[in-house]
Amino acid sequence: MRRLSIKTLKDFLGQVHKSDFSTLARFKESALLGWLGFIALCLTITWMTSFSVSHFPEKIEVGQILMRDIRADRNFSIVDQEETKKDQEIAIQSALPVFDFDESVPLDAPAKVQEILSKPILQDRESIDPYRNRGIVINRIHPPEGTHPDDREPIIRDFSNLLTVEQARQLVPPSYQKWIVPNTTFNLQETEIRKEAAVRSVKEKIISYNAGDYIMRVGTKLEPRDVHLLNIIKKARGLEKRPIRLIGTFLFVALALGATFYFSEAYVKRFLPERKDYILMGLVIVGVLFILRISLVFIGVIHEALFYDWPQSAFYYAIPIAGGVMLVRMVLTAEVSLILAVILSLLAGMTVGTGVDYTTYCLISGIAAGSAIVGADHRVAIIKAGLKTGLVNALVVLGILMIQTASIGSTFQWDSLFAHLGFAMLGGILASVFVFVAAPVIETLLDYTTDIKLLELANLNHPLLKELIVRAPGTYHHSHIVGILAEAAAEAIDANPLLARVAAYYHDIGKMKMPGYFIENTQVEESRHENLSPHMSSLVVASHVKEGIALGKAYKLPQRIVDMIPQHHGTKKIGLFYEKAKETTDPGIHNVEEKDFRYPGPKPQSREAGILMLADGVEASVRSLKEKTPARIQQTVEKMIDGSFAESQLDECDLTLRDLHEIAKAFTRILVGMYHQRIEYAATLSDQPTPTQETSFEEAHKAGQPNVHRLQFPK
Predict the structure, then answer these.
(1) How much is the pLDDT for 432?
(2) pLDDT, position 447
(3) How many CB atoms lie within 10 A of CB 178?
(4) Are residues 546 and 441 in the same domain?
């Protein structure tokens, strides 16, 4: 399957071929369909975050009677420019004109002149008459030393004490009149600066609405003020320029998704989603956004009807955004769920529009949900994951409230605090409810396998397992031992132990078709393969893979389990029959092709499949040992793992050398415990013969000893 790879346009065009349109199957796997799906997802998200679920009249005019309620479909704030402008005009009027008063007096001036010049003197009264009802500010340029700061710019509202030049000259003898000049002049520049400062200090008149709030009720007759308000809302919500808004939202969504996916595919090691995984993430995003938009509407109704004394913002924390992350983490890796948490938090924050607080809350809540759901293999575990997520939600909301309280300098309102924390806790619980509802849907539609589904398959009463124990009891026992080994190894390297164990239970179900051709199911010394040619024996042994796949599909096993049936053999060589064919075939007549004696594959594609391959080979090899001492067991385990590694069977399953070392330790520990030495009691020694190397199969079986296999056939 070709992965959807978001690279450059050149790379994209290079991936599209004419053959993609040759058949429907080819088109389904083509890169073009992947990109079309990506564009469709972006368009859907754009619509989900932009559409209005509230009626808004197309025509707005004075005297019109509203036929329906007008309600806010999301949180938004608008600026009333008209009211803001009025406040700015008032601020300008409050900025008094500034007059500079120069108190410097010539030293040689007569005392009488100095006394008069120590007071403000204007050129004429015409310069201050426009401000008679407001007053002016006297800016003392050179005040005497020791002047108090409040006295440096006195405000003069009574102009009767202000002198003009003409009035001042009348107070001195004619010989002194030449000293009398204006010392107070209008400072236009400083006046304008103070007006601009006054305008900047005016806060915008902001009208805020929460989702579900009534803007105007049905039956309202629109007054000029109502028309003005509705036009502001219409303009602010982008209803007049909807195409531009939609295009901008689409670009934001496409860049957010595209950049995130590109970076993750390029640099996040375990971010390896397939086409189906992208479909799942897209469906989860759309589903969560749909729940979010519907919730915003109903929250407004519920708040107004029942909880009007609680802050409406508290209800937003109950929306189960984290449920999407929790669901994806149940079936995909932690890296994929983290990327989804980032995307969902961005889109949720943009949709709700309450700022960075809600975006941060959704991100932390999603991360907590993805962590809490790990290992949930039964219904109660999902509820516990929801409770853990709710607890983290409550702590995050508490932190947000504390920051908000400190920033505005108010005190805690305990009823509001408990409402916020309670709804945050409810958000975690609803996330688990979302998983309860959605998990069976994705298991059915997209054939995902959750741990809960795996646990159901691990039930030994499953029809396939019940049939296996009847028709192929040796294979049944072998599968259980392989399951124990695979589970221990998966735990050692932090893979999925439950998946490894369940896959081991079903990996050899194809042997039920011809159980007598596999040594663990035989009860007689003679082998059925002795009457077959090596090539035919090879086909019979390899056929259990094909038969197992057919049985798995017939019993509707999850695709992950079915895929591991052929992968547990990979493309290994059926060595026994290959060597026998070379011995019995004349090279001059017929060449023995090695490819005819190999399993069809593919090689293991996951860590769990790689573990299954190793566990299957190790169990069979150790079981065939005559002396199962710890040293021999360890040697056999290491030899089998080294052989698979050297044969390049593990190249595609992402197992590291460190992983192989841990797997070998786990296998050795389990097998040594299973085949530990036992004390032989006297009665046993006297009553039953001890089989030797030459003991026949029947004698060994009667003595109650492990089967002595004369010939070990490949699995």
Answers:
(1) 94
(2) 84
(3) 10
(4) no
Predicted local distance difference test score (pLDDT) of residue 692: 35
Q: Is 98 helix (H, G, I), strand (E, B) or coil?
A: strand
Asked whether residue 185 is assigned to any structural domain, the reply reads: yes
Q: Are residues 495 and 386 part of one domain?
A: no
Q: pLDDT value at position 414?
A: 65
- Token duo for residue 94: 């409050």
CA distance 234 to 422: 35
Specify the CATH number for the domain of residue 469.
Answer: 1.10.3210
Same domain, 413 and 492: no
Does residue 230 fall inside a structural domain? no
Residue owning tokens 């509001």: 416
**C-alpha–C-alpha distance, residues 632 and 630, integer Å:** 6
Query: Given 431, 448, 465, which residue is the final one in a domain?
Result: 448
* pLDDT given at position 29: 72
* Spans of the chain below 50 pLDDT: 1-14, 683-715
> Which of 405, 420, 448 delimits the end of a domain?
448
Q: How far apart, in Å, are the Cα atoms of 271 and each of 12, 320, 366?
A: 20, 24, 17
Which pLDDT value is given to residue 164? Answer: 87
Reduce the secondary structure of 283-309 to three states and give it as a string: HHHHHHHHHHHHHHHHHHHHHHHCCCC
The pLDDT of residue 548: 92
User: What pLDDT does 698 receive?
Assistant: 37
Write the CA distances from 664 to 3, 459, 657, integer angstroms: 33, 28, 11
